[in-house]
Structure formats: structure tokens, C-alpha cells
Specification:
Order of helices and strands: HHEEEEEEHEEEEEE
Number of strands: 12
CATH class: Mainly Beta
Helix content: 10-25%
Oligomer: single chain
Strand order of the largest sheet: 7-8-9-10-11-1-2-3-4-5-6-12
CATH architecture: Clam
Radius of gyration: 18 Å
Largest sheet: 12 strands, mixed
Number of helices: 3
Strand content: 35-45%
Mean pLDDT: 81
Shape: globular
Amino acid sequence: MKKPILTSFLILFSIFISFAQVPKGMGKSDADAKKILDAVSTKFKTYKSVVAAFSLKIENGNGKTMGTKTGTVFMKGTKYRVSVAGQEIFSDGSNIWTYEKSSNEVTINKIDPTANTLTPQKLFTNFYDKDFLYKLNGTVKEAGKVAQEIELTPIDKSKPFHKVLLYIDKSNIVSTKVFEKNGNRYTYSMSNMKTGTVVGDDTFIFDAKKYPGVEVVDLR
């Protein structure tokens, strides 16, 4: 199967997931930044469901755009669904279906409850306390909105990136920029976020009947 086109999208989630402890001598984080990040996490946990459009832009060190992707993400509790052109990922909290349109193939994996599994939800909850030092840079204009810019520096220096910028407006993350050590930059932006939409549980389950002739690779 071809390399999933959501790889770059999921990188933006995976960078926030580890169990590193802050080593002595690493310094302290900014209390003002923590208040803002805590507010984001607290607010997100009150949402029963989230439906939002997203975009991902990839740039090289010279600022040249190397690619863009747009799509939709659905979240409800531990369930999620990510859709972009050519590929979809479904998760009902127990299983993950990865569907690739070009090959009309879906791969099914069981979620290991003891593993540190990637989920879009983790981008919005308290990912920052153990993995980063963070500081508030101030107010900036981002994606046409006035937002607070928070800079995160990874504690684990073996990470492929050296800096992450979060742009937060009214306790919502509107944009995330990841700066890799090789110069590449990934910008992930959310828009049209709806938190009052009724989302049925069947949204998060792959229905083979809707994909005639699909090849199923069940790895559970």
C-alpha cells in the first residue's frame, strides 16, 4: 500500500505525545502561557462533539510551499474521523480504519489501550505540561484573527523539530506551526469549528457497503 497521504497531518499530532519529564536545569515555563494553555484544554473537554475544517501547508526553509492539504475532522469523546482528498481515517475508540481511495483498500487495526495512541483530541488537551517548555510571545495577527502566540520548545532534543508556535484565540487553537531542524515548516489551521453539531456514532465506523469492491486488510 502507498504511504498514507495523512502522514504529514498526523505528524502535527504526534509531536505532542510523549512521557518526557522536565530535566533539572532546563528552566521553567511561563505562568501566563500556562494559563492560556490550561484554558484551551479545559474548554475543549466541555465539547460533546467537534466538526471542523482544517488545512495543512508544508514549506521548505526558503518559505516555498511544497504542498497543501485540506479536509475535515470529526471528534466525539475518544472517537474521531479525519477526511482528506483520497484518504480517510475512522476510529470508534477501539478500532482504526485507514482507507485509501487510489487502491480502494482499507486497513483495520485494533487500538492498544496501553499504547500512547495518536488522536486529534490530544492536540487540544494538556499535551504541553511534560513535553515542552513554553512562553507567551504576545499578541499577533494570525489567519485574520488577533491571537496569542505561544512558543513551545521540546524538552527531548532528539525530536526532528526545534520549535512549535501555537496561535490561540478565545481559548481555541486556530493555527499551529512546526519548525523542523531541516528547515521545513508545517502549518496546521482549523476553521469553521462547530461544537453543537449532533454527530452519530456511525460516523466513526468504516462501512464497507459504501465502498464497492473495497479490499479489507484486517490486522486485528
